[in-house]
Amino acid sequence: MNDRKPLGLQKQMETAATNRSKKGDPKPAKLSREVQARLGQQLRAMYDEVLNEGVPDRFNDLVNRINGGNKDRQ
Amino acid sequence: MDESVRKAVLSAVPSLRAFAISLCGNVDRADDLVQETLLRALANIDSFQPGTNMSAWLFTILRNHFRSEYRKRRREVEDGEGHYADTLKSQPDQIGQVEFGEFREALAQLPADQREALVLVGASGFSYEEAANICECAVGTIKSRVNRARTRLAELMGIENADEFGPDQQTRAVMASGE
Q1: Rounded distance, CA A45 to CA B109, Å?
Q2: Which domain holds residue A45?
């Protein structure tokens, strides 16, 4: 209905960001490698926590059920 | 469905979940998002081009679905900026262990565009080009979002300078006095 297309929204947001930076926002200071590495480690550790949970049964079942359904139809 | 396709879909699930959790900050909602993504993907599996990256294809579907759902919800509730952070605070044990608490909180405070760019490049293992395809934007935009995300995270966590971590205050005081 009133849904804007994602791409349109994206462009608007980018334009807004460009306008902001043109107004003289200071460029983000460059982080040291050490800081970047530490942030990266924390992010991956958090992400890996979820990866280590593997594929929950509900998704295994879902994919296999649909797979079986396709075979039946063919 | 081809066996290799089925395997590719299943092997993408853990990473899809991790991405979904980072997008919406709530495990239950994230799993619903993954479920809806899988249903959409499997219903449209013919539009997947064999030989291309299954993971990237699924991430794109998940992200688009999340965006349209999120916009709908926002119209319904007139969600404030801090909603994602509040969701996190109200369900601390759902999201994981306390050790990443500070990091999670900082991540939650980033604008959604920056957060997703950082996660795609920094944790999901996508290249800048792949992340740009998933987010339907220019590679330069992804690069700038990732940089902004890192800078903001460092600010929020108070580690803008290398000095601010590593040896703790006491060790540093000892080291300083030895000079």
Answers
A1: 19
A2: 32-74
